[in-house]
Fold this protein.
Amino acid sequence: MEIDRAVRAIHDGGLVVYPTETVYGLGADALDPAAVERVYEAKGRNRSKPLSMAVPEVESAAQYTHLTERERRFIEEFLPGPVTAIVAAGPDVPEELTAGRDRVGIRIPDHELALALLDEAAPITATSANVSGRPSVRRADALDPEIREAATQVLDGGETGGTESTVVDVERGVIHRRGTLAEEIEGWLEAQ
């Protein structure tokens, strides 16, 4: 089964392309510095730019981070969904993932195939499955050749929604990237 092969690939340090409700993501074991490095290599991404991590639900996010009450309320309100919440990283999160920062992006995708993968292999990296500087991918057949070649497994979930996630630092009340739900998030931040 595709999911089983993808889970094995993650556990073996490989890369997996997976669909989300926004764009296709490139996943690897987020706690394995060597696997995280393979993501940077495949994307040609600058090592000073952090990667986020995907988990299947709030409680698994809490395992790898230090969530404040405000952050927990925010995550419960907006995730799963097209949002990345920047929170304090826990001690198990490698600096390779966070580019040496003390905070990490948390993503809980609202996509059945992504959640099935995460149920068995979380936490995994949550970054778009494209070479840095090129457009994000909404269909598996549109993957950059470099990404397809680097990936052990591609989970094809059909065409995705297309708009990248809104990235928000909840504690600081800062939206770093506006995407879907940005206006609702602004309203929530102002009201809390």
